[in-house]
Specification:
It is a single chain. The protein starts with a strand and ends with a helix. It has ten helices and eleven strands. The longest helix has 21 residues, at about 260-279. It folds into two domains: about 25-115, Leucine Dehydrogenase, chain A, domain 1 (Rossmann fold); about 135-260, Rossmann fold (3-Layer(aba) Sandwich), CATH 3.40.50.720. The protein is about 40% helix and about 20% strand. By secondary structure, the protein is α/β, with parallel strands linked by helices. The strands form three sheets. It has a six-stranded parallel β-sheet. Helix 1 (about 5-25) packs parallel to helix 10 and helix 2 packs across helix 10. Helix 7 links the parallel strand 5 (about 155-160) and strand 6.
Length: about 280
């Protein structure tokens, strides 16, 4: 079993972003605005890590903190202000939002040119048609990590557990574009093991701590754990690491696997959007 080290690759990506900014931007640096609706401690931690990454890469950052009970209209008004702000190149709406807010409608208020998470209908349409220059950050990070370890993807059977746009559907699309055969499973899938036991690569993004155990996997499976679950002050993935480590050929740890890559690819997407706006 070999650990897929997301931390080292994330540092490499950030260094590359930092160098490109140094070469391409003389005065005005790329800029990222993070919108966060208060009330979710995990979201606050995630935004903090993104701001630290911005500082490291020489990307200007702005955090827009909004009250927990903000209305849908007021949230969309804040997004529109950033759309019109020439000092902002990229906009990220930190998810999840409180239940009274419609995240899909809010995301689609971000203009495609600044939609850094690639989650608007327009940008997803380009992604799924194979005509996009960037993709959602977590999905991008997963593919980059497999490439880093020179893992051939062509012809692989891939099972993605979870069907969110942010991870499941997006990474399934990227795998399909690399000539994999992809199955998306979810909470309503019957006999999940029938799918995972035939998979060469399993991507787990369901938000259930230590859900995947050895009996779900065949020998030498490549296992990508996207889950981040906090229990009694500790962080666990969606995979029972200790239980499965001896059956996997490669596995991502939690923490230190996919998480750092999500942040690094956010920096890369910010740079991509900034360069496109210069053309």
């Amino acid at each position: 079993m070999e650990i897929l080290d997301g931390r080292s690759l994330s540092l490499q990506i950030k260094e590359e972003v930092k160098e490109k900014i140094k070469k391409e931007f003389l005065d005005k640096k790329p800029s990222l605005a993070c919108i966060i609706v208060e009330g979710n401690k995990a979201s606050e931690i995630y935004v903090s890590s993104k701001i630290k990454a911005c500082d490291y890469c020489n990307i200007n950052s702005r955090v827009v903190k909004l009250p927990q009970m903000i209305s849908q209209q007021d949230l969309e008004n804040e997004i529109e202000k950033l759309n019109c702000d020439d000092d902002i190149n990229a906009i990220l709406l930190q998810l999840p939002l409180p239940e009274h807010l419609n995240s899909a409608e809010a995301i689609n208020k971000i203009i495609p040119q600044k939609d850094v998470d690639c989650l608007s209908d327009f940008n997803l349409g380009r992604l799924f048609s194979g005509n996009s220059s960037f993709a959602p950050c977590t999905a991008t990070g997963i593919i980059k990590l497999l490439d880093k370890y020179k893992i051939s993807l062509q012809g692989k059977n891939v099972v993605v557990i979870g069907r969110s746009l942010l991870v499941g559907k997006s990474v399934a699309c990227l795998f399909e574009q690399r000539d994999c055969t992809v199955t998306i499973c979810h909470s309503k899938t019957k006999n999940l093991k029938d799918y995972t036991l035939n998979a060469d690569i399993v991507v787990v993004a369901i938000g259930k701590a230590r859900f995947i155990t050895q009996d779900y996997l065949k020998k030498d499976t490549i296992l990508i754990d996207v889950g981040i679950n906090r229990i009694d002050g500790k962080i666990y993935g969606d995979v029972d690491f200790e239980n499965v480590k001896d059956i996997c050929s490669y596995i991502t740890p939690v923490p230190g696997g996919v998480g750092p890559l999500t942040v690094a690819c956010l920096m890369e997407n910010t740079l991509t959007l900034s360069l496109q706006q210069m053309m």
